[in-house]
Amino acid sequence: xxxxxxxxxxxxxxxxxxxxxxxxxxxxxxxxxxxxxxxxxxxxxxxxxxxxxxxxxxxxxxxxxxxxxxxxxxxxxxxxxxxxxxxxxxxxxxxxxxxxxxxxxxxxxxxxxxxxxxxxxxxxxxxxxxxxxxxxxxxxxxxxxxxxxxxxxxxxxxxxxxxxxxxxxxxxxxxxxxxxxxxxxxxxxxxxxxxxxxxxxxxxxxxxxxxxxxxxxxxxxxxxxxxxxxxxxxxxxxxxxxxxxxxxxxxxxxxxxxxxxxxxxxxxxxxxxxxxxxxxxxxxxxxxxxxxxxxxxxxxxxxxxxxxxxxxxxxxxxxxxxxxxxxxxxxxxxxxxx
Length: 338
Hints:
The protein is an alpha/beta fold. It folds into two domains: 15-199, 3-Layer(aba) Sandwich (Rossmann fold), CATH 3.40.50.970; 211-337, 3-Layer(aba) Sandwich (Rossmann fold). The chain has twelve helices and 14 strands. The chain has helices at 20-34, 58-62, 74-87, 105-112, 115-118, 148-152, 165-177, 228-237, 257-267, 282-294, 315-321, 325-336; strands at 15-18, 38-42, 67-69, 90-94, 128-133, 158-160, 182-187, 196-199, 211-214, 219-223, 244-248, 251-253, 270-277, 303-307. Helix 2 (58-62) links the parallel strand 2 (38-42) and strand 3. The longest helix is centred in the first third of the chain and has 15 residues, at 20-34. The model is unreliable at 1-5 (pLDDT under 50). One of its GO terms (molecular function) is oxidoreductase activity. Keywords: Oxidoreductase, Thiamine pyrophosphate.
């Protein structure tokens, strides 16, 4: 599958209709059945099936030695998982919310991301850290962060954000099979927003490949996760006046620079949509990449359509904070009318 193709199962594949969170569970179950070294650990992932039921049924199927309920101690969860990975296992550690991950930050950036380099290749760290992220579900403080840029900045980590059920299972499979640590960030706003046909068999979607969700010729809009759907909605709303190309990055580290640059060379204009704050967000990195690799194709400043440089607000302002189709439409028009 090339980066330019829409993600979809083969015509003859046996499929089932799944939500995104069900695709997470299916991906975990499939890999655990295939490889005895794969295990799941985290708070309430066992008998309870996880806070969003992403591990539902795994405890009954694989037992307490491979579906491990841990204390409420994020640093301990990831630190233990790093040791397991160095020993040769393939742990999948769940953080209940991305906003709870900060106590484990030292283990991720100081140990997981550096293990291969520190040991001069003697040890690898085939570890996946799963975390629901993003806003839009009316949650309390610390439950709605989009801090993906923290992890994309760290060499040695891969950062993956799916936006569809089909991609979720395929990307999670690739993450689990990776020999390097992967941050697998799941947009919880769309956990149960829609269904999609997902193959029952195992399959991989390569990490580091973007997907062009909608082809266009006037402007390239780069996005990921839950922002993919409102971006496509905005593109469809504008279809009679602006031909919008929508590129779902899927992997934030490593970025698919080839697809990003080639899309921009075709359109000459760009916007980036993400729900994280603007300052220090990945929109800046994407903009810099376009400047370095395709400056002479540029027709207008790159528009950044993002969250605001404030802590994520509570209920009353949550919808205002998140980029939605109307704000994305305005940003696209700004870039095209420059």
